[in-house]
Amino acid sequence: MPTLRFQAIKETFNRVPVIVNETERRSAIFGKNVFNETSMRQFLTKDSYKSVMNAIESGTKIDRSNAGHISTGMKEWAIAKGATHYTHWFQPLTGSTAEKHDAFFETIEGGRAIEKFGGGQLVQQEPDASSFPSGGIRNTFEARGYTAWDPTSPAFIYGTTLCIPTVFVAYTGEALDNKTPLLRSLQVLDHAATDIAKYFDKKVTKVIVTLGWEQEYFLIDKALATSRPDITLTGRTLLGHASAKGQQLDDHYFGSIPTRVLNYMRDLETECMLLGIPVKTRHNEVAPNQFELAPIFEEANLAVDHNSLLMDIMEKVADRHNFKVLFHEKPFAGINGSGKHNNWSLCTNTGVNLLSPGNTPMKSLQFLTFFVSTIKAVNDYEELLRASIASANNDHRLGANEAPPAIISVFIGSQLTKTLNELEKVTTGKLSPEEKTDLKLNVVGKIPEILLDNTDRNRTSPFAFTGNKFEFRGVGSSANCANPMTVLNSIVAKQLIEFKESVDKLIKDKKMKKDDAIFNVLREYIKVSKAIRFEGDGYSDAWVKEAKRRGLSNTKNTPEALKAKISKKTIDLYESLGIMSKVEIKARYEIRVEEYTMRIQIEGRVLGDIARNHVIPTAIKYQNILIENVQGLKDIYGKDFRKFSKEQMQLIEQISEHIAKINIGITDMINERKKANIIDSIEERAFSYCNKVKPYFDKIRYHCDKLELLVDDELWPLTKYRELLFTK
Ligand code: ADP
Ligand code: MG
Question: Are residues 628 and 516 part of one domain?
Answer without folding.
Answer: no
